[in-house]
Amino acid sequence: MSKQKDIRILAYESSCDETSTAVIKNGRKIESLIVATQIKSHQRFGGVVPEVASRHHIEVISQITKEALAQANASWNDIDAIAVTYGPGLVGALLIGVSAAKAASMATGIPLIGVDHIMGHIMAAQLTDEIEYPALALQVSGGHTEIVLLKDPTHFEIVGDTRDDAAGEAYDKIGRVLGVQYPAGKTIDDWAHQGQDTFNFPRAMMEDTDYDFSFSGLKSAFINTCHHADQIHQELNKYDLAASFQAAVVDVLAHKTIRAIKEYQPKTFIMGGGVAANHGLRDRMSQEIAVLSENMRPKVILPDLKLCGDNAAMIGAAAYNLYNEGKFADMTLNADPSLELPYAKSMLE
After folding, report:
1. Under a CB-based contact definition with an 8 Å cutoff, are residues 197 and 247 in contact?
2. pLDDT tens figures, 280-337
3. Alpha-carbon gap, residue 215 to 165, rounded angstroms
């Protein structure tokens, strides 16, 4: 029997404030990964400025394409498909990646694959270990907080979503109040491990029967607590504030996700997104799953920390699954800032 041909995908990711390219082999192996970060440019504004992000993408995308190919020791002749994030995200930022990928596809004749950004975050787990289906994913980032059921590598159902602020967005907003530079998640996580949950912030929708989330009330309670202390000239312990905030976020995420695991009984549990790098959340989910009964306990895949943030490797992994199903795009592919995950109506059948 002849050996199956290796499939190499050159991937682009430019949905927000990271410009990234990667070469992924067979959807599992990272042959190269380049990430050009813009964090320092946006820190002075306290968050991402879309126009600034788009300009930075334009400046580096050609160069990091060359770097990804060189790092993988590959030429265009070695590439079987070109993948790109086309949504959701900032429309201007997405357009840079989509334009670059379409230009490369048109110039080389290599097939084009459009990838959903959230699908990419979830499929970062595929670069760490083999996913057994059905799987359940907790997707937690600056723009999204979702519980997603995966029937197979390309068909998903969102069973829980955020009704207002995403968890990562709440981290950044309370970080501003504490004087933490954007992005605030890592610092808040570090501080939380040095403090105690003394403020007992609200756990919204904790006991609701659905799997939706709400973090705007928690954010407001945190900000109001800090503003009130300022008005009466009371100094609050920043470590206890961070610990109390993080405890509230993690309690809600863990409680609802464990309940979803018990209901849907997936073979694999995945975490994805920037907040999936949070050590408090990673530890809590691992601990809670470990004490489930053996017949209820899924395999746990937590992606490497470098794969939790936006990166092209995850896009290449997701694109490989689409490649195997012949789901290619053409030159009409366009940025879709409100793109939703591909939904499978037969998920529970």
Report:
1. yes
2. 999 999 999 999 999 999 999 999 999 999 999 999 999 999 999 999 999 999 999 9
3. 6
Bridge partners, 293 (sequence order): none
- pTM reported for the whole predicted model: 0.92
Tokens of 106: 């048109």
Give the full edge-to-edge strand order of the sheet including 299-301: 155-161, 145-152, 135-140, 268-272, 299-301
The burial class, CB within 10 Å (0-12 / 13-18 / 19+), for 129 is middle
Q: What is the pLDDT of residues 203-227, one digit of tens each?
A: 999 888 899 999 999 999 999 999 9
In angstroms, the CA 349 to CA 331 distance is 35
> How many CB atoms are closer than 10 A to CB 46?
15
Beta bridge partner(s), residue 77: none
Coil, strand, or helix at residue 239?
Answer: helix
Q: Which residue has the tokens 């003394």?
A: 198
What are the φ and ψ backbone dihedral angles of 302, each rounded to 5 degrees?
A: -110, 120
Q: Which residue pairs, CB below 8 angstroms and at least 24 apart, start in 206-211?
A: 206/251, 206/252, 206/255, 206/256, 210/160, 211/147, 211/159, 211/160, 211/256, 211/259, 211/260
All residues at 6 or more sequence positions from 87 whose CB lies less than 8 Å from its CB, including other chains: 15, 94, 116, 117, 335, 336, 337, 338, 339
Say if CB 275 and CB 167 are below 8 A apart: yes
SS3 label, residue 156: strand
DSSP structure string for 281-311 = HHHHHHHHHHTS-TTT--EEE---GGGTSS-
**Which residues lie below 8 Å from residue 129, measured CB to CB, with a gap of 6+?**
299, 301
